[in-house]
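Repro case for the chain-ordering regression, as requested:
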Amino acid sequence: MTTSLDKAADAGGPAPAADDGGSAAARRAIDWRALLIEAGITAGIVFMLSITLVGIHIANVTGGLAILTRFADVVAAVVLAFVGRVGIVLIREGQPIPVLIGGVAAAILGLFVPPMSLIGPIFSALTGGEWTPSVMLQVVQVAGGVVIALRAAWVTWRTRGTLAEQDQRTGGVDRFGAQVQRATRFIGPIAVVFAFSLPFLFYDRATIDLATLVVTYIMLAWGLNIIVGLAGLLDLGYVAFYAVGAYSYALLATEFGLSFWICLPLAGVFAATAGLILGFPVLRLRGDYFAIVTLGFGEIIRIILLNWTQLTGGPDGISGIARPSFFGIADFTRRPAEDQLAFHDWLGIEFDGIHRIIFLYYLILVLALFVNFVSIRIRRLPIGRAWEALREDDVACQSLGINRRNIKLVAFTISASFGGLAGSFFATRQGFISPESFQFIESAIILAIVVLGGMGSQAGIVLAAILMIGMPEVFRELEQYRMLAFGALMVTIMVWRPRGLLSHRDPTISLAAGSKPPPDAAKRGARP
Amino acid sequence: MEYFLQQLINGLTLGSIFGLIAIGYTMVYGIIGMINFAHGDIFMVSGFIALMSFMILGIAGVTWVPLALALVLVIAMIFTSVYGWTVERVAYRPLRGSFRLAPLISALGMSIFLQNYVQLLQGARSKAMPPMIEGGFTLMERADGFTVDLSYVRLMIIVATLVLMIAFTTLIAKTSLGRQQRACEQDKKMAALLGVNVDRTISLTFVMGAGLAAVAGCMYLLLYGVIDFYEGFVVGIKAFTAAVLGGIGSLPGAMLGGLMLGLIEAFWSGYGSVEGKDVAAFGILVLVLIFRPSGLLGRPEIEKV
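-- result from build under test --
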């Protein structure tokens, strides 16, 4: 797999090439002292990190707090860190095979013989203390072993991991991203068909619920993408519009008894108005200031919802929100009201609670596809191109005679209205809303999906949403580790691919070298 | 008048804590231009470490309060600094030179991670500690029996913050470390060419920020006697507001912003409603940014193509 260029880089590099001829000399050249010092430092840092929060547990007991200790976990963590670091250094020094074996062995050992059964007795023998093992340790050992083994395997396969190769690898993923973008016009319809047939493929309540959740986040992320991905403005308070949409529907439905189908567009309008009002003061701001003010607005709206008890019910929220009917024709209840038609009677099928869930899934799917359609179309309009200019360079954009204030306001308003639509869907699906659902963390999750997907990439957002929302939900048994894994995933993906999974930032319309502008994106693919 | 004075004292104490955390935000923003969202959680971690140290010292029999306090401060600063260093090393250093949003998302992820890490390891319930330092001076007494108290805790917080601020300003202004830090803030490439170890300086900035947050964490614990895993977010956001209010990137600005925010909160809850104090804090942030985007003491930003 290595190209001649890489071989040249290897030969010229500081360490000799680890191909079969020179490997014997290279292997003996490992500086064990430096290796042990490096591993020792890592182990020391892990010790400092773990001795406090891992080693000591402040337990709430009746009448106050008690201190419990978990020093064996600390010891295990330190040992794992030491061994792991030695492995990483060995890989770096061109000796991946022992590491590969060691990593696999550690993972298998961890899987079948939990580390606590090994260290536990030694620990008890040394200190005489009782010790309750934690599952986390086993997870860390298995995962650590697998990761190191994978890395060693990768390096073995590629002969040596040089910096040049890493660049090439990143370039490869970039090219893959671009290809996926081009292939979207083929994959896209397939994905849509799959999404529409999903309720029939998996006729199962839990799966459809999960799919609804994922699609809700996809819709929100597509909506936020207009501000962040197209216009390049960092909005940390998107959940505010989601909340406005949800509360407008909930209030209109409970106070005035309006139906969902009237309220849906109204919720969009209200959220857009909120976006317009909040948009005005933040227009002058740039970059991080914009981010902070939007965060502030998000929090202000949440605090108002929490404290305006007469209108919003305060922390108790609003419950008993009407569920949507089948376009006003039929209801999804077993025994509908006098003048209403029941869905199952209307179609002449057996009553089943899943009908409503499937209907809600299709509802959000159609809403999401609507948002997608609008954003793809709007990118081609002058306003869409103006956003892209704004994203690439703020000042240059203004110098070209584009009114920054107006286009920012349009982006804010359109994006807000989509947030509002998603919010009213959320309210009707849950049947109950409270300020709890609109915390900053929601904004952070939606933003994370947009950025992880590769800003501005519609397909990347789908991928990121499935990864960020779907994966943790699948591993429900590890419920308590869900958000921990979520945070770790965000950091890992960012460190691995800072520009997002499918980053690809071609302008929608560009001048091809010496020819007329290509009329559509398909021709861009053929560009040299 | 007496009521006003009491609120003033409360506001100054709260403001000192905000100011100490805000310095961490403002230094990191000054040097690498990113909002370190995990800083509030570093503050929360330090609160837990301080609580642990208090309890262990109590078991070990260190009962003389000044000694115990000094030990707790040192322990919390050391261990929290390691957390600060590690966060920078793991989540931000690989993203140096990357595009603007990447470290921000990484920081958000780190913040979520730290919150859940502490929640998993220490439990979700808040930990209440019996007050360590009791008593105080009674400064004034009104005819109807309302007294203006300056408790020893509050006095200690204000004095410690003053001392730390003086020490810290000297560190930045006079020592070679401070000079390197300011050089990196102005121009990292040029500083590197002149022999400044930029990575090390940035790491040290995080360590210093975490150290000050640790002091704030100890004080917060002493003042309120309760800590939980979610505490870092709210306090962190307010401290960041303080940093923006004072002009981000400016150290005296961070302190001034912190004090102002503390006073605003105290007076708002004293004369208005307690619930409204967060709205007041964010509302003032928005107003300041609209009418004076560079903050009170910040330099105006120059727009470059």
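Ordering looks correct now. Chain B has one domain: 2-291.
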